[in-house]
Amino acid sequence: MKIIFWGTSHFATPSLEEVSCSGHEILSVVTQPDKKQGRHLELKPPPVKTKAVVLRLEVVQPEDIRSREFIEYLEEKKADLFVIVSYGKILPREILAIPKFYTINLHASLLPRYRGAAPINWAILNGEQETGLSIFKVTERMDAGEIILQKRIAIFENEDAITLGERLSKEGARLLKEAIDLIEEGRAVLIPQDENEVSFAPLLKKEDGRIDWNNPAVKIYNQTRALVPWPGSFCRWHNKLLKIWKTQVVEGSFLDAQYGEIVDINKDGFIVKTGQGGILIKELQLEGGKRMSAEKFLLGHQLGKGELLT
What does the DSSP assignment read for 169-218? Predict the structure, then answer.
């Protein structure tokens, strides 16, 4: 099977490696242009480009995927299949019509649930205990194509978006290889999605990270797990941004305290009253400072019971 692989983020690198080692021929790897990153705004390649270079694969980084020049490049490759994993752009109809078979996508949810850009984050944010992976035929409608393969994956209680994403990326690579083999052998069965079951996972916004202490502790716990590394969960302390990295739910009513009030300090961190129960802050980062354990933070900052996080 002759394949053009489309991908950009770390999530796509296990799939690129799996497909390249599976006996199929990767004609080209399409990824997004290098971007300026860090304090010094240095140009850095996307993870998929880095992996493709190691695998000695041809890489192309179009600024405009709709340009005539790029479309002619794709047509000249005469690919059997386009494979998309976390590329970051929606392909137009003209491109989807190019491969001999069609275009498939690996998506990190059990479609039709959590269509969109951030399925891993929203599954954790909503307190799901299970998510999954879907391989589907790409259409012009976002994540709406017919399903080829799916796999259910449990979400562990202490998992965050980074660790869950790593697990899903590795499982997804194996599922992708299986789907490609089915297509090559003519055994792929395409199943329409149930439009009555659709839900969405839109792009995250900075404001999604703002902590509302009126929420139950379990909701804040899920928020801190779901929104790493960006936008992160945050509040304010002494008029400075305080990013909360790790938390733990604590049972209790804390009747005499206000929401957001520090009600206890111990060797593991400090407990804040929420709308239901308390939340133990275990790792945090003050504006302008480094990420650290609550124990180290308390050694260098005067933070006491009765103070409010806003």
Answer: HHHHHHHHHHHHHHHHTT----B---GGG--B-PPP-GGGGB--TTSBHH
| Cβ(140)–Cβ(93) below 8 Å | yes
In whole angstroms, what is the distance from residue 79 CA to residue 28 CA? 9
Which of 35-64 are b and which e, b meaning 16 or more Cβ less than 10 Å from the residue's Cβ?
A: eeeeeeeeeebbbbbebbeebebebeebee
List pLDDT tens digits, range 203-239.
Answer: 999 999 999 999 999 999 999 999 999 999 999 999 9
Distance CA 30, CA 140 (A): 19
Using DSSP's 3-state secondary structure scheme, residue 48 falls into helix
Which of 239, 247, 196, 189 has the alpha carbon at shortest distance from 217?
A: 247
Per-residue pLDDT reduced to its tens digit, 152-165? 999 999 999 999 99
Helix axes 161-184, 13-20, angle to 10 degrees: 30
Quick one: how many helices (H) and strands (E) in the chain? 8, 15
- CA–chain centroid gap for 126, Å, is 14
Q: Per the omega criterion (within 30 degrees of 0), is the bond before 99 cis?
A: no
Which residues, 6+ apart, have CB-to-CB distance to 187 below 8 Å?
A: none
